[in-house]
Amino acid sequence: MLKIKDLHASVDDKEILRGINLEVKAGEVHAIMGPNGSGKSTLASVIAGNERFEVTQGSIELSGEDLEEVSPEERAHKGVFLSFQYPVEIPGVSVTNFMKTAINESRKAKGLEDMPAKDMLKLIREKSELLEIDRKFLSRSLNEGFSGGEKKRNEIFQMAMLEPKVAILDETDSGLDIDALRIVASGVNKLKSKDNAVILITHYQRLLEYIVPDFVHVLHNGKIVKSGGKELALELEEKGYDWLKQETAV
Amino acid sequence: MDLKDKLISSFMAFENNVDVEHPVHDVRMAAIKNFEEKGFPSKKEEAWKYTSLNSLQKIDFSIFPKEENALEYKDVKRYFIHEIDTYKIVFVDGIYSSYLSETTHDGVDICLMSAALTKPMYKQVIDVYFNKIASKDESLTSLNTAFSREGAYIYIPKNKMPKKPIEILHFSTGNEASLLLQPRNLIIVEENAEVQIIERHQSLTSNDILTNAVTEIFAAKSAIVDFYKIQNDNETASLIDNTYIDQKDKSLVKVHTFSFGGKLIRNNLNFYQNGEYIDSTMKGVTILGEKQHVDHHTLVHHIEPNCESHQDYKGIYGDASTGVFNGKIIVDKIAQKTNAFQQNNNILISDKASINTKPQLEIFADDVKCSHGCTIGQLDEDALFYLQSRGIPQKEARALLMYAFANNVLSSVRIPELKTRINKLIAKKLGVNLGFDL
Lengths: 250, 438
What we know:
The complex is a heterodimer of chains A (250) and B (438).
Chain A: E1 2-11, E2 14-24, E3 29-33, H1 40-48, E4 54-62, E5 65-66, H2 72-78, E6 80-83, E7 90-94, H3 95-109, H4 117-130, H5 135-138, E8 141-142, H6 148-162, E9 166-170, H7 178-191, E10 197-202, E11 215-220, E12 223-228, H8 231-239, H9 242-249
Parallel strand pairs in A: 3-10, 3-11, 6-9, 9-10
Antiparallel strand pairs in A: 1-2, 1-4, 4-5, 7-8, 11-12
Chain B: H1 3-15, H2 23-38, H3 54-57, H4 73-76, E1 87-92, E2 95-96, E3 109-112, H5 113-116, H6 123-129, H7 139-146, E4 152-156, E5 166-172, E6 178-181, E7 184-189, E8 194-203, E9 208-219, E10 224-232, E11 237-247, E12 252-261, E13 264-273, E14 279-288, E15 293-302, E16 308-317, E17 322-331, E18 339-348, E19 354-363, E20 369-377, H8 381-388, H9 394-407, H10 416-429
Parallel strand pairs in B: 1-5, 4-7, 5-8, 6-9, 7-9, 8-10, 9-11, 10-12, 11-13, 12-14, 13-15, 14-16, 15-17, 16-18, 17-19, 18-20
Antiparallel strand pairs in B: 1-2, 3-4
């Protein structure tokens, strides 16, 4: 579904990704772990099409289509979703109105009519229940004054609404207390299917107890230095990342 | 003949049509003398450094409208907040339109300045309030005072509140090749009384219109005044708005200024806090394009202790538009425990647009909290990416961000239908259908 080949990316002439190779198939959950500054968030941003980063080499393909010339909004229409580490506050635009705009823009791009209001309301109700989101919350301005946990839960609510093919969750577990983490994880698990894929970007193993990955990759200095099954996450938790630095220094 | 000479010589003709025996006429005569001495302000004056009136002075304005040009309500309905019931004081080419208006004397006076300036029953109030807070020094205010004859007169007695908001509308029809309008408003809100006023100047013609308006507002002890100015005029209409507000103890006055259009707009908004525990709020949203020019000059004079003032102006400038924000705060020596806040944030969306922003603080007391901040920037790229990553195209995403930027000024608008209207104007001005009803 998602095929990343020898991906190099830089910002302000500083190379951050130095040759990433990753293949994510439908139905799979991949976890990308690694120390701070290893390039995890950059990888997420580059997949979603953030133009702040320049792809200098390599390619990203979604269902066989090269995404090089594809804008962030078009990637979203094709089924890429990024749950942000730091979601942006949009005063004056409610969560509901924001989702209506997002869904209808996506439909417009596919040549479809706007979703009828009745269907939209039903969808919103369904998905907000999935994430145990209060109705009052939906009429608040997007992310404005939200707690860290509310922001993350709202990100996953948006994912539920947009039903992406590939969802990248960038440090969705940070800032979540254990109850919120359970709700978010159970939401993600319910959204998982054989037709979509999830990439979890995380620092800690904690999230992976709730969303069990099929593969774990360790990112260091802009490269995947180790891949394995879910047991690799436990190993990392135990040993930390210091051994990595030594290993790669050798 | 230049415009100044034309105005001075017109004053004699004007005198033929007003009661020169009335004490108000002494005020007018002193005012025309001041205007004659000073003339139009030039760019040499610090307060007019970024706003030139030169090109306006070259236009051969008619000083007096000839006759009322009838308008049908259906043709101008959209300029009213027609979703709600309001009192209306409507002028067409400077002349009162009884047909479009809805005035009242039921417990409150919502009527005409021409009546207040001539009828004996208003004389006492006029003696106490007329031209008492307006500047006697500033030449354009003097010009208005000299020709003061018509406008809105609002008197809210103690403990009263009109049943509905008041709309003051000035239409110009292009009956004359070019027309100078000088409305004069007097608004008195007595102790513990409350009023909501919406004001709009609307040109319906491509002929040149220049409005030089003066509004005096007196808010007595514990009075509440909400004043909303909608400035969305066409490209041949200019406005110089001079508003003077006198506040007494515990009064609360908010002025919102929405500047979305017009050739040249100058807002002189002056607050004088003559009492304690006063709150003065000024909020503004400015969205300009083409070659439009808006100049916001605010003044808050903290004269007594324990008062607050809040200023929050947001501007979005596109094309070759230009903006000015000059916020002056004076805190007198005895005005201890003053809290004065001023914020001016701007986004430039075109290389040719420009903004000059200047805080001007003169603080003579030592136990005060004053803050000011101004920013000039572009849209936040991270925020833009966030919206795009949800499938919202870049153009719409930019508009949504600009909308969000301007929107937080609207939280204090207390008339929901007006808020909806302003929201729609903002969306329209930003040129995008956001896909939902605002």
